[in-house]
Amino acid sequence: MATDFAFPDTGAKSAAAVAAQEFQTEKMSLSMGPSHPSTHGVLRIQLELDGEIVTKADPVVGYLHRGDEKIAENMTYNQFVPYTDRLDYLAPLANNMAYAIAVERLAKLEVPARCQAIRVITAEMARISAHLLGLGAYGIDVGAWTVFLYAFTEREKLYKLFEELTGARFTTSYTRIGGVARDVPEGWTDRADAFCDQFLPILEQILNLLTRNKIFMDRTVDVGVISREDAIAYGLTGPNLRGSGVPLDLRKDKPYSGYEQYEFDVPVGAKGDCYDRYLVRGEEMRQSVRIIKQAIAKFPGGPWYATDAKKIFAPPKDKILTSMEELIQNFMLVTEGPQMPAGEVYFEAENPKGALGFYVVSKGGGVPWRLKIRAPSFCNLSILPKVCVGAMVSDVVSILGSLDFVMGECDR
Amino acid sequence: MSAPADATTALKARFPQVTDRASLDHPAVNVPAADLPVVLQYLRDEVAFDLLADVTAIDWAEGVSPRFTAVYHLFSTVSHAYLRVAANCVSDEAPEVPSVTALWPGANWHEREVYDMFGIKFAGHPDLRRILMWDGYPHFPLRKEFPLAGIETPLPDPDIVAETGAKAIAAPMMGGPFVAAPGEINLTEAEPRAKDESWSERKEKPE
Predict the structure, then answer these.
(1) In angstroms, how far is CA B162 from the centroid of its own chain?
(2) A-B contacts at Cβ under 8 angstroms
(3) Whole domain around residue B9: which residue ranges?
(4) Residue A82 and residue A171 in contact, taking contact as beta carbons nearer than 8 Å
(5) CATH of the domain at A127
């Protein structure tokens, strides 16, 4: 019995179709975000795709814009401290410190050694906390759940210490202009030291989950390469800049708050790919532990706020309630703000995400005329249109995670 | 490559139109707006101020002339020094400065933000759109005449507006910060209730 049906040669047919351009080959536009798990907040990237390859990426930011700079122009210097918590809300203690130092530079005010040490310890703890979240979330982005759980267990311990010190776990508002809100509680430094000791072996475990993990390396090695020149040209800072091989760390190169007394290394990447940025963050946590342990070992005594800055730092509460002069001083501070000279300063601190800058323009008095916040996440994201082009869609997730940005800071 | 400590001296010798600017910390110079690209290129290539840390602007209030100043913060990854370069915008009504995106691609977003917040145009910018506010937003929020509470503005998406009638309304300021602006000594006037620009006990809440 003869069969008269033919088996079509599908391969040849599709090749012919491609040759005849019967398939739709126009580019596709894909909106990634603003509520996409890998965009870590409210970032939208308008992607233009040729199949699976990104041909154009246009980040759309501003969904979290709250007008922090406008708000700052309308309140006294100390009133703005809680707003700095909400910039990079993963490291509020580091933001508090950067802002306080910027305004202290304006007042030409030196805070005592104990205050500097407290600020360094808290800022480095904030760095560990921020990098732990960065790594944990990055793990989830590229398919490794376990890292997140380990990282969050450690962050919880840090939050306990933050709560004990500042009264809040998340939005700490700890610094004041000329000091900090309160001295460290009894035994707190010992508990911070104990945290560091138990943290180091766990950090090795966490990093071991990723560093030689085949799946993780396939997703990150040679993906999202940023050259040294591009990193500088786009104003990248922090681990993203160091991942591209530029050994720039403001704690080393422009020391503030007594960082020059501590020994630590600045890790740099070799290639500038996502994997290098991951390695830099991992190593930075080890170095932060080193700094914290040194700072605790030689934790200075003495006053924890600038006692001579009467027009800037509020007097102790018991004095306010019992002494007329301190009462007036406190009243003036609350109503008119800390009195600043006219002039302008720009200060950048090495935050977990990069260099957080505050440009303060003062006309004198207790309110800034203009306060510009130089957000590292904003600058770091501006390289996306360059680095995403030519990558696969799944690589975009990997690149975003490796840049480790926070939209609260980017949009302000 | 000269030492950045004398960067301003060398800069002023090379460009006589550059003048010193008062500053409490880093060296700072004033540059005529038209010369910005040349001066910044010189600083980037000859003095190794290779990292453009920040671009921003200051509004010196309505009626002051020059009203707008564009401010650039440069950082050197070689000598680890900062330099502040400021340029007054020529026109107070339609402020404009030349763009430096050709020197630093990272200036792109900074200049878009300054345009968005102050309405300063950057001549030669490849893509001068708003960045934080939405396209078509009619105001420049960081200008001094813009109230802290905001201004009632229609939302950008016409179908959503037609469906919901939603709009951006001014924020309530009751219980807001207790502020005395510089030079303002009357504390009663500085109270939040006095500064309230939207609804309060005396003024009805908008629908």
Answers:
(1) 34
(2) 133
(3) 4-123
(4) yes
(5) 1.10.645.10
